[in-house]
Amino acid sequence: MAEYVEKEAKSVEEAVQLALEELQAEMEDVEVEVLEEGTKAVIGLFGGKDAKVRVTRKVSSLDVVNAFLTKLTETAGIDATFQMSEKDDVIDVKILGDDVGALIGRHGDTLTALQYLANLMVNRSKENHYKVYIDIEDYKENRKAKLESIARRTADKVMNSKRAISMDPMSAYERKIVHSALQSYTQLETVSYGEEPGRYIVIKYKG
Predict the structure, then answer these.
(1) What 3 state SS string does the chain have?
(2) Which residue, 6, 69, 87, 129, has most beta carbons within 10 Å?
(3) Structure pTM?
(4) Looking at domain 61-137, does it have CATH number 3.20.20.80?
């Protein structure tokens, strides 16, 4: 389906209506650019000129994200479906499919990169800033629960031994989960060390 059409008619209104019919769109779904206002014929016979407009279909943020993910998965030969919703400039995406695990990567590295690229795409030419969150087969939810469990077990070990324990390197998103999970441990502190991508958390006893 065309992204825009140009139409000529005796008036701007008539030209716009012709364009809307061809695009199968409503007025709120398009942007109208008047290329020529048009002029009336002298005495109804000579010198009249039709109006000309260009009517462009507005591309929503969801359309941008969908097009990006569709192109990526098709190129990778991955059969996937997308569940998307938008609220308050936040776009939530769930990717589902039998072989979408390849899009997750080690500790979610590929998923993080995918989400970063989606954010770049949707904000490339937008006045409003959108935040795109992508999850694959509930990986983030399951990973969050696993990290919280590991963090609490490690915290208990530190409480018993009174010795600091270093956790494996993880992304900023995962480190935030650990920090939040251990906020209630008032006798402990969680400190991040190192440089990305090897940055890690040390859980310390402070009494």
Answers:
(1) CCCEEEEEECCHHHHHHHHHHHHCCCHHHEEEEEEECCECCECCCECCECEEEEEEECCCHHHHHHHHHHHHHHHCCCCCEEEEEEECCEEEEEEECCCHHHHCCHHHHHHHHHHHHHHHHHCCCCCCCCEEEEEECCHHHHHHHHHHHHHHHHHHHHHHHCCCEECCCCCHHHHHHHHHHCCCCCCEEEEEECCCCCCEEEEEECC
(2) 69
(3) 0.65
(4) no
